[in-house]
Every structure is written in C-alpha cells, then in structure tokens.
Amino acid sequence: FLLAGVLRAEVKTGLDVLKEQNFGPLLGKRAGVLVNHTAQDRDGRPLVDLLMEAPGVTLVAVFTPEHGLTGKMEHGAPVPDSVYPGTEIPVHSLYGETKRPTAEQMKDIDVLVCDLPDIGTRFYTYATSMGYALEETARGGKEFVLLDRPNPLGGMAMEGLVLSSEVRHFTAYFSVPTRHGLTLGELARWHNEKAALNARLLVVPMEGWRRSMLWPQTEMPFLAPSPNIPTPRAALLYSGIGAFESTNVSVGRGTHTPFEVFGAPWMRNITVARTLSRQRLPGLRFKPVTFRPTSDRYKGQVCYGVQIVVTDTRRARPVDLFVHAACALRDSSPKDFKPRWDEMPRVVGTPEWKDWFLSGEKPERLLERARATIDVFRIERLGILLY
Q1: CA 367 to mean position of chain CA atoms
Q2: Residue 16: which H helix or E strand, with range?
Q3: What value does the mean pLDDT take over residues 158-163?
Q4: Helix/strand number for the chain, H first, E second
C-alpha cells in the first residue's frame, strides 16, 4: 500500500515471525516469558495465550518489569507477584523484592522468552530488566530468546553522552547514548558482546522494519508501554525531557500531556520559552503555558511552564532540547533550579557533567562533548546491527 507516496513494507514483529515459524525454537522446551501487556501479535493475541496453546511448548512462568503485567502501575511503585489470570502459572515481579530472575524462579525453565517494548532511551527501565534477565540465563545455562520490536524513535538518530563506566544503576546500565537508536534485540546483542556474557542468545528479528522508520511509518497501533507514555510523541520527548526528573522541575506527570510540557511554580517560563525559540531547534516550537499537575511533583500547584510543539518528528532532537532548556533554567533561575547531583549522572551520562554545567558552559559546548562520544559508538555498534 502507499503512504505519503512511498511504498511501505508490512512490519512483522519478532513475535509475528516466531508464530509463522510455528514456535520452532521453543518446541519441546519449558518456557518462561518476560512480558507486559504489549506482547501481542498483529491480531492482538497475547504471547502468553499463544504459548499456552502452542503444541510442544510448556509455559511454566511469567516475569514482568516495572509497571506490571498490565503496564498500569505508576512509575517507581513496587509490583507484587501474582498468578496469570485463569491459570495457576506464577507471575514473578522483576520490580519488587528482586529485579533479577532468581535461580529458584528459573529452575524449571529451559528458555526465557523476552518480548518487551522499548522507547529508545537509555534510562527507560525495561531495557535493564532485559539485561538483568539475559545475565541470569547466561549464569544458569538457560536459553534466551528475544522477540524484536521497533524502536519508536527509529534507528538512525542518536543523542546524548555515551554512559560513562563510572555510572551504573538500574536506570543507567548500558554504555550507549541517551537516545541510542537500537532495537531491544540489538541492545541484547550489544550487552552479550560487551559484557562477555556468552549467553545462549537468539534474537528473532522483525521483517519489514527499516532504521529510518519512526513509529508512524510502521503502521502499527501504539500500545502505551507505561502510564505516562501514551503516544509516540511522548516517547520521543521523554528521551530529553525525562532527564528533568533528576531536578526540581515537573515534566507534566499528572497532566494530559506528560513530557510535552515542563515547568515549576518558580519558573520564568516566558523567558525560557523565548530563549529556546531563539535557538531555532529543528522540528520544535515552544509556547509559555501554565498547568496544574494532579499527581507527582507539584501536585495541585500552578506551574509556569513551556509547552513543546513537535513540528517535525524526524528532525526533532529532544536530548539536545534538554541541554538547551537546562542551561536556560540555570541562567534565568540560578537560585531556584536545583538538579539532584547524585542522580543526574544517571540521565546525562557522567559525573563530570556537573562541573561542566556549573562552570557555565554553553549548550553548544555540552552538545559537542556528547557528539564526540556518539561518533565512537556509531562505529562500535556496526557489528551488532540487525537492520
């Protein structure tokens, strides 16, 4: 079919491809799955249900990441263990008492199948859950099968510093740029190689997906991977505006447009909006607004903020935007803008960022530092790309 005058191939996810293979790699094996509500085939059928019906496959356990099996629990809220509805299959939380599958939970499993969404940003926790699970399967001699899905931000653009080896945290686990341009399958291959895991890893690749595709070009429905990423636009802007969660700035949680606005009761929003507008950042426009969050930071308070209008998703660079916006807040509200410096390295990539920022470095210089690390990463990642 034609879209905007361009012939587009039908995108099949790794699950769709595995289904066409009649679940061949899983036949005769006891399987666990690491999933949430988005693990569906093109007909909307959950992976768990498909495996329960697949001849020759025995499903013995389900593992879930942050936000739980339904994807509706709020960020940071511990997820309890449960049982898969209508069955006696245990659902083990990897965002509760443990963030890793335990040896006891894995003892009856031959293969762990991972089908998680990712939104292309290093500090989104699903990727780390995948990484932890990959490590545990390698440690236990189990197989790991990853069913690949599109990166909604595409596979071309990369932004932000490559994570320093000095920084390791659940939200800062892979030495990749903030916006890394990899699919989750490619990230698994990267981790398996760079961490020398020697895992028994099989990535079932997509068909029809190209690196140049942003989410709208996939023609796939967007299932919100977590409560505050309701749209592909929010996913795009999260890669930059999400970094403000390590400061005293609201990112619009508790509004109808999370990550499309940022602000605070003390912000000089007209000044910040004008400063950003003068930078003429590609694909973005800015408007001063007010908003009152119903939850999270500044709940019930009027925030003076900036609305981000995306005019061109392909050209927009949200991580660059964060750097410009943070510098604008530093310069316009030096006494009020308060980064939490113990957390900031996890989102910006290095503890050195504090010294650079507080010394008054201009956004252009901070971005030059990031682009230098990306130039190296761009070459290093070539061997693990699948598309």
Answers
A1: 21
A2: helix 14-20
A3: 98
A4: 12, 12
Residues 248/264, Cβ–Cβ less than 8 Å: yes
pLDDT bracket for residue 9 (50, 70, 90): low
CA dihedral angle for residue 27, residue 30, residue 33, residue 38, rounded to 10 degrees: 40
Task: Report, as an integer, the average pLDDT of 116-122.
Answer: 97
CB 3 within 8 A of CB 11: no
Tell me if 292 sits within 8 A of 303, measured CB to CB.
yes
- Identify the CA nearest to 131 among candidates 180, 77, 80: 180
C-beta separation of 239 from 121 below 8 A = yes
DSSP secondary structure, 351-364, as one string: THHHHHHHTT--HH
Distance of CA 255 to the CA centre of its chain: 20
Cβ(285)–Cβ(203) below 8 Å: no
Give the DSSP letter of residue 381. G
pLDDT at 8: 52
Q: Answer yes or no: are the C-beta atoms of 118 and 151 closer than 8 Å.
A: yes
Contacts of 372 (CB under 8 A, 6+ apart): none
DSSP labels, 151-172: -TT-SS--BSPPPPTT--BTTB
- Put simply, whether the predicted model's pTM sits higher than 0.90 gets the answer yes
Neighbouring C-alpha atoms within 13 Å toward the C-beta of 73: 17
Strands (E), the chain: 2-3, 6-7, 29-35, 57-64, 82-83, 90-93, 111-115, 143-147, 200-204, 261-264, 284-291, 303-310
Average of per-residue pLDDT across 219-225: 96
Angle between helices 125-140 and 184-194 (to 10 degrees): 50
Amino acid type, 238 = Y
Query: Which of 115, 152, 112, 120 is CA-nearest to residue 11?
Result: 152
**From residue 115, how far is each of 63, 99, 200, 266 by CA, in Å?**
11, 17, 16, 42
Q: Burial letters for 19-38: b for 16+ Cβ neighbours within 10 Å, e otherwise?
A: beeebeebeebebbbbbbbb
The mean per-residue pLDDT over the stretch 182-201 comes to 98
Give me the amino acid identity at 42: R
